[in-house]
Amino acid sequence: MTLALRLAANGRGTASPNPMVGALVVRQDRIVGKGFHLRPGQPHAEILALGRAGTNALGATLYVTLEPCCHRNKRTPPCVPAIVQAGIRRVVIAMKDPNPLVKGKGARALSRAGLSVTMNVARREAEELNRAYCYWVARGRPYVILKSGITLDGQIATVSGESRWITSPASREEVHRLRAEVDAVLVGVGTVAADNPSLTARIGTQLNRLAPRQPLRIVVDSTLRIPLNAKILSAQGESKTLVATTRAASAARLRALQKKGIETILLPSIDKRVSLAALFAVLGRRGIASVLVEGGSELNASMLKAKLVNRVRLYLAPLLLGGQNAKGVIGGKSPAKLAQAMKLKDVCIRSVGGDIVVEGGL
User: Fold this and answer.
1) Looking at 46, 67, 174, 294, which residue is catalytic?
2) Whole-model pTM?
């Protein structure tokens, strides 16, 4: 199953909003077929593994990281009939599929067909691999990672707004890999105005080449004050941009963005700001299963206040800015008591380049 999980990880960044799945066909202690799901609309891992096994699948064991599907409400045929028809004798499954269309039905169908079914082998590892998929299926909104590069004293920029570059080249390279793995990257208009980022995922030692897969770039801008010459509005053929705004935006600005090929969505406002809950509900319905937040302190504070953040990843550079007027990683008002502080769970700490990465769930 460990090898099947490694196979499944090959679909990272491409399989979404489908889950990452790996499968192995084993006969007489020998792997005779293997496969992983690459992207929506392409064959599932089980089908690929069975196809490569051919007649060797007869009487063999299928190891698969997610419960095989049994429904037809999708672009590809269900896997359960193919498994049965191939003559598989035993199926070992890492985790149940949380999709209500499957959720135990695939395993039961295999059992009814006379196959031996073993569940929950390396379940925790499989659930961790598909953490975003499971959350999206259960909640109907994307799994959110809030990422920021900060100094040791928690600042993301100087008083003048300078922030490039706080973290090391190694940390920036890792963030670009993370961008290529998520479905969307989210910033506020303040970050666009201050830093003019492209927010593309890039590869190479100089980060000068576009990654094969690009995230949807999302800008939260309640009044459409985004500069029309911003990098994030260019090269839509390479990476798409979505601007979330409210009815406070002028019709002329809406037309200007649409003329540039930028998709805009009008959302309800809360305290004159875009309702983040409404935005994430829309993203969930569109099949956006994971979002990386790379905003400034105010957007970070708003996301945390709305309880929309699932995981925090902070890159701490060995720098000290000091001062009361530098820009902290979380804006807004501080709680009056330490007991009100947000606590990270399952914290892991590691080093990247000369930086320290602190990561945990909320």
Assistant:
1) 46
2) 0.91
